[in-house]
Specification:
The protein is mainly α and about 220 residues long. Helix content is about 75%, strand content about 0%. The protein has a single domain, classed as Tetracycline Repressor, domain 2. α2 crosses α5, α5 packs across α6 and α5 runs parallel beside α8. The radius of gyration is 19 Å and the shape is elongated.
Length: about 220
Amino acid sequence: MTALTFFNDAAIVVGMKRRVAGTPMVRKGERTRQRIVREAADIFNVHGFAGTSVADVSLATGLEKGSVYNHFESKDALALAAFDYAAAIVLDRVRAAMHAQPRGVAQVRALLDLYGGVGEAPLVRGGCPILNTAVEADDTHPALRERTRAAMDGWLELVTAALEDAISAGELRGETNAGAVAATLVGALEGGILLARLYGDAARLRAVTEQLSMFIDSLRTRSR
């Protein structure tokens, strides 16, 4: 799955909850599936793939296990849909924050501002689904690992595009490697989230975003 494919699928997942209800008989099954995915996304993100069962999802939704299996043929299929839903929410928030600003450095700073508050208010319950799933699925679940890589690719592409715009506009030095800087920013943010959760201290993530802001300043052209 490519990053573009993931973003297209993610938009569909997030868009499900925004659709106007149509004929009840037609929409009932879709609404039920949507509720299952929404509840499962929280459970999988908090407890992980190995720590979550279909019975847990059944209990959270109030549906029989058979009803869950009517919409998802397996736990694997449900986990993939749940990850897509959770990751789509995160990437939708990132996109919205960045695209609310002019192109270039302002978008990068918007990303850092957004993550400066993530330690106190995670974008989804359980923390970053990309980080959580990447750690668990690295060697144990190839399909989830592939989906996680696609989500990460999409995030890196967003940041890289903003940095490339900043270089083209003369905001950042011409020799700046946009891809390498994007990887540095995203990697540091994910590490900051990990530190904040491990130590129960949101200030750890804020410190990371402050250092990243200074790093971006160090790449600015002298005229700026």
